[in-house]
Amino acid sequence: MQLFNELKTLGHKHIKADKKAGEKVPSGMWIACPKCHQSFYHKDLGVYQVCPNCEYGFRITARERLKWLVDSFSEMDDSLKTTDPLKFPNYQKKLSKARVQTGLNDSVLTGMAKIEDQRLALGIMDPAFIMGSMGTITGEKITRLFERATRQKVPVVLFTSSGGARMQEGIFSLMQMAKISQAVKRHSEAGLLYITVLTDPTTGGVTASFAMQGDIILSEPRVLVGFAGKRVIEQTTHQKVPSDLQDAERVLEHGFIDAIVARKDIKKKLAWLLELHSKGSDANG
Amino acid sequence: MVSLLDKKKTAAQIVANARSEEKMSAYELIDGIFSEFMELHGDRLSDDDAAIVGGIAKFNDTPVTVIATNKGKSAEERLRTHFGCPEPSGYRKSLRLIKQAEKFGRPVITLVNTAGAYPGKSAEENGQGEAIARNLLEISSVKIPVISMIYGEGGSGGALALACGDRVWMFENSMYSVLSPEGFAAILWKDSSRADEAADVMQLTPEKLLEQHIIDGIVPESRSHKRVFKAVKKILQKELIDLEKLTSFELIEKRQQRFRQF
Ligand SMILES: [Zn+2]
């Protein structure tokens, strides 16, 4: 079945336009932290866009994250485009807008990267691309990333950020969970390392598949991590849900996250983990 | 209500039928298809979820593992099963039984009728996402055939976690979707009363899903339960014969190709 086309319209023009958009935010603007509710000058958030009070990492696009995360990067599959299998009304318009906003063809950026001297296959989901929702192209890009990593015997690092499955692609979005999971499994069976870094928010079908399948699961501070939406839980159970139920810190206490790492420390921590695991795979292969 | 037997049904009618009170219960279905069913309880970690019934049985004299979501019949049972919405411990029980089946080389048949994984406080605390994720990961490479029948609702990741094997069949009056039509309409149009319209757009009927190769076939339903059991048995028998011809390597290859195409 043909579920994707090559995208002809996305060129470097859009990517440049997006870079400008990212820098357009006036540096004198006040911004309130959604977690601790303190207000700061936007420029106080610094290069990492982190709350100076509680270390919450503000939502950033995949390309913004890439800037300080990697030492080299070669992008993959940046021209795949969904066939819009449900022919969903207004979906194409929504996609075009998201492409301009993020400079991506869909909700994840993938490619082969280097962090310090470590080679890896890297995926970064973009919360600005239709809520980071997972459609067929998101699933295809992540699957291809794992397949390539398995062939080239390199680890995978995935930054998750998603509202869950993309409604506009219906059941095909759901199938991505199974498709990606089996690619993760093959990569794992090859003895290779998979690290997930949960970023705000990681929910729904992404939590219920590859976000929770890492050998090591890291999270930024104060990230929303959950399966069901809070409103759905309250409507179903007729009970008020504690406001911190789905905070990464609580999820860690329940045993589902290995460690919480501040955004500014992520690169170093990943480099260390990749280096630590590289000896083993050298010896095996 | 539209009868289960009317042909040409709208998507909204199929949704109503899939959720109908007249639907068979998990236990009725198990008893109708298999013999000598023995229920096996618990996830071996903390809990025994009533929303997932599992155990061993015989299918035409061959041992099989059976896993079914259970909505319950009585009000008390429905409360206990959250109307068939499993807790994380339900998914962990199902995976335990699938691994057990793999060890002893018996095929697994799953019977799915769930609106989805339970959205609750304790479900979140106990890792609903992780439990489903682990099922998806592990079932992708188990060395025994896994055949699924969606016999009512197939709701989202909570259904997929039990329907990610080698074959997926759907009853004529069943649905399979990424979200309930009500939820879909609420999210996309901010109006849950447009559920009927959503049902149509979502292509959640067996016919539509068969066209898209999401499922492998449709089980015809009739007023007589006996006839339905007979139809299911015939399908299972044929599928098992086909799947057992494959080596475990071929089986896993084909299973992965099945999902890779999407
Ligand atoms: Zn803060």
Task: Describe the fold and architecture.
The complex is a heterodimer of chains A (285) and B (262). Helices cover 38% and strands 19% of the residues of chain A. Chain A contains 9 helices and 11 strands. Chain A has helices at residues 12-23, 62-69, 91-102, 136-152, 170-189, 204-207, 230-237, 248-253, 263-284; strands at 4-6, 30-32, 39-41, 72-75, 80-82, 108-115, 118-125, 156-162, 194-202, 216-219, 259-260. With 262 residues, chain B is of the alpha/beta class. Chain B has a single domain (11-260), classed as 2-enoyl-CoA Hydratase, Chain A, domain 1, CATH 3.90.226.10. In chain B, strands 1, 2, 3, 4, 5, 6, 7 and 8 form an 8-stranded mixed sheet that branches. The longest helix of chain B is centred in the C-terminal third of the chain and has 20 residues, at 225-244. The relative contact order of chain B is 0.14. Classes of the chains: A alpha/beta (285), B alpha/beta (262). Chains A and B meet through α4, α5, α6 and α7 of A and α5, α6, α7, α8 and α12 of B. Chain B: It holds the Pfam family ACCA. Chain B: It comes from Liquorilactobacillus uvarum DSM 19971. Chain B: One of its GO terms (biological process) is fatty acid biosynthetic process.
Order of helices and strands of chain A: EHEEHEEHEEHEHEHEHHEH
Q: Are there runs of chain B of 5+ residues with pLDDT below 50, and where?
A: none
Which CATH architecture of chain A would you pick? Alpha-Beta Complex
Biggest sheet strand line-up of chain A: 4-6-7-8-9-10-11
What keywords describe this structure?
heterodimer, A: about 280 residues, alpha/beta, 2-enoyl-CoA Hydratase, Chain A, domain 1, seven-stranded mixed beta sheet, two-stranded antiparallel ribbon, 9 helices, about 20% strand, B: about 260 residues, 8 strands, binds zinc ion, ClpP/crotonase-like_dom_sf (chain B), lipid biosynthesis (chain B), nucleotide-binding (chain B)
